[in-house]
Specification:
alpha/beta, globular, 319 residues, binds nicotinamide-adenine-dinucleotide, seven-stranded parallel sheet, two-stranded parallel sheet, UDP-glucuronate decarboxylase, binds uridine-5'-diphosphate
């Protein structure tokens, strides 16, 4: 039986990865310090004979007894409001955390994957973004703590691959959404859905002409799984190329939720990227992967999830 360590297991993507690897027959160790995650996301796995949870901060030395076949390092604050609130921890989990886990992978002879991001392209001057684009990042801007941690993470991972021959994978994840997103994580989909459910107007930042391309979580997990199982060592974009402006997206959500809220405009946060769309030619050609779930279906499933939250949970949101 393959043994797999997943960091960030109590988070949005980490918890879906735990489900997937258990379904594939792996023994899964989920590791998390719960700084932005929630045990609720994995409570259905407690009692599963092939799952164990380790409450640990990966910026501290990571010890796992026995063998390990795969390590997926997904621990990191991922939402702008999170990494603005905890900038040092964000830098540390990308830098020190990655170094610790690379050391562990080397020790165990495990295949190692990092969750990189479209943010390494910054506010991109090339559109859509191919893996060859070097990016346009403000190192000292508010998003720099996340972007540079992720860029360092890619560099150190490549260095372990080159100098130690470690078997590594780098997935550049573009905006992903779906059940188990945290309602108050500040990202646009939970923000708009929470506002719709509370009967508040939807807050579009700037004039809403900035674009994003949203990938449903099941598609993202499939792409990540295929990349891990492939023999491709260079960075690969995994995301949905269907791009939409944030204003049009707010209108879609108003239609989907059947509410009659208005759109109100708030200032655009500093360094908010103006456009983002993955070029997924490599994923199509090398993995035979492309997203299958359209935005309408994915958003409907996500809305169903948010509707299950209690009134108290909805009101606890400070957005
Ligand atoms: P999330 O905040 O839901 O999950 C991250 C998890 O990491 C949380 O459970 C948190 O408690 C844990 N964590 C943070 N620091 C830790 C530490 N020092 N030690 C142990 N655990 C720690 O975020 P997510 O959306 O699931 O993102 C997961 C990964 O994917 C992140 O690395 C993120 O950068 C990357 N990513 C996500 C997206 C997206 O759209 N969701 C896009 C690009 C990249
Ligand atoms: N956004 C918005 N209203 C909100 C939250 C976000 O208009 O209440 C915008 C934000 O400025 C950005 C886009 O939605 O242009 C996506 O933001 P998110 O935080 O989800 O992700 P990221 O900027 O990291 O892609």
């Amino acid at each position: 039986m393959k043994k797999t360590l997943i960091t960030g297991a109590a988070g949005f993507l980490g918890s879906h990865l735990c489900d997937r690897f258990l379904a594939e027959g792996h023994y899964v160790i989920g590791m998390d310090n719960l700084i932005t995650g929630d045990l609720k996301n994995i409570e259905h796995l407690f009692g599963h004979k092939n799952f164990e949870f380790a409450h640990h901060d990966v910026t501290k030395f990571v010890h796992v007894p026995g063998s390990l076949d795969y390590i997926l390092h997904f621990a990191s604050p991922a939402s702008p409001i999170d990494y603005l609130k905890i900038p040092i921890q964000t830098l540390k989990v990308g830098a020190l955390g990655t170094h610790n886990l690379l050391g562990l992978a080397k020790d165990k002879g495990a295949r190692f994957m990092i969750a990189s991001t479209s943010e390494i392209y910054g506010d991109p001057l090339v559109h859509p973004q191919t893996e060859e684009y070097y990016g346009n990042v403000n190192t000292i801007g508010p998003r720099g703590v996340y972007d540079e941690a992720k860029r360092f993470q890619e560099s150190i991972t490549m260095a372990y691959h080159t100098f130690h021959g470690l078997d590594t994978r780098i997935v550049r994840i573009f905006n992903t959404y779906g059940p188990r997103m945290r309602l108050n994580d500040g990202r646009v989909i939970p923000a708009f859905m929470g506002q719709a459910l509370r009967g508040e107007d939807l807050t579009v930042f700037g004039d809403g002409s900035q674009t994003r391309s949203f990938c449903f979580v099941d598609d993202e997990i499939e792409g990540i799984y295929r990349l891990l199982m492939s023999d491709y060592n260079l960075p690969m974009n995994i995301g949905n190329p269907h791009e939409i402006t944030i204003k049009d997206f707010a209108e879609e959500i108003i239609k989907l939720t059947g509410t009659d809220q208005k759109i109100i405009y708030k200032p655009l946060p500093k360094d908010d990227p103006m456009q983002r769309q993955p070029d997924i030619t490599k994923a199509r050609e090398i993995l035979g992967w492309e997203p299958k779930v359209g935005r309408e279906e994915g958003m409907r499933k996500t809305f169903e999830f948010f509707k299950t939250l209690t009134k108290e949970e909805l009101e606890r949101t400070e957005h």
